[in-house]
């Protein structure tokens, strides 16, 4: 029997075929999950084209900075999924380009607010709306983070602060939602060639460093993050919550 047979998932953050969110969608669908993908208006065509590759996948619009949009998206997802949600995947992060190009000391108030709102608060906002669709039967909430939340990664700047806030939110949500058997975890992936990662200078050099230094002596692939998300979405991880799971070929354990 497929690991996720009969399970229903709502995924935020698919942008194109290189998106980690898309890799997660593929892994979940492979094991039987029914999917709903959200899209930003400017990404609609890309998301619809990808969704068409997985039979039965629905797509709905959502701007995560807009509470009315979030209300509408979860209401529509509830209708499409017959009032049940088993898996919520949060792959949403953004900071203005200038905040990543300029020194961290020059972070603006507006840029700080935008990064934290989109990259961290949106998880809380989604979890609040997902809980009524999950609490009768339990579920899994997943987010994506990065080790810059703990270590200085030059040019990651305010996004590192946002990821730290996201990870703290994961722990508090895990505590509060646990009484309904809803698990909340995050995956800390190694550097990947995604649309979001291209906004951080030095990515190529850092990937080379990871391949040289990590215990597995290689970089990771999107599919490996997807399969970790599959594990965390399934009953195989039924006693795991509040955790940050590294998928980075072991790079995080190294001293340099």
Automatic annotation (TrEMBL):
Q: Which residues bind substrate?
A: 95
Matching CDD domains: ENR_SDR
Pathway named in the protein's UniProt entry:
Lipid metabolism; fatty acid biosynthesis
* Top-rank EC class of the record's enzyme: oxidoreductase
Tell me any Pfam family this protein matches. adh_short_C2
What are the GO BP annotations of this UniProt entry?
fatty acid biosynthetic process
Q: Where is the active site?
A: 146, 156
The reactions it catalyses are: a 2,3-saturated acyl-[ACP] + NAD(+) = a (2E)-enoyl-[ACP] + NADH + H(+)
Q: What is a single molecular function from GO for this protein?
A: enoyl-[acyl-carrier-protein] reductase (NADH) activity
Instruction: Give the record's keywords alphabetically.
Output: Fatty acid biosynthesis, Fatty acid metabolism, Lipid biosynthesis, Lipid metabolism, NAD, Oxidoreductase
Which Gene3D superfamilies does this one have? Enoyl acyl carrier protein reductase, NAD(P)-binding Rossmann-like Domain
Read off the InterPro entries from this record. Answer: Enoyl-ACP_Rdtase_NADH, NAD(P)-bd_dom_sf, SDR_fam
List the EC numbers from the record. 1.3.1.9
Protein name listed in UniProt: Enoyl-[acyl-carrier-protein] reductase [NADH]
Gene responsible for this protein: fabI
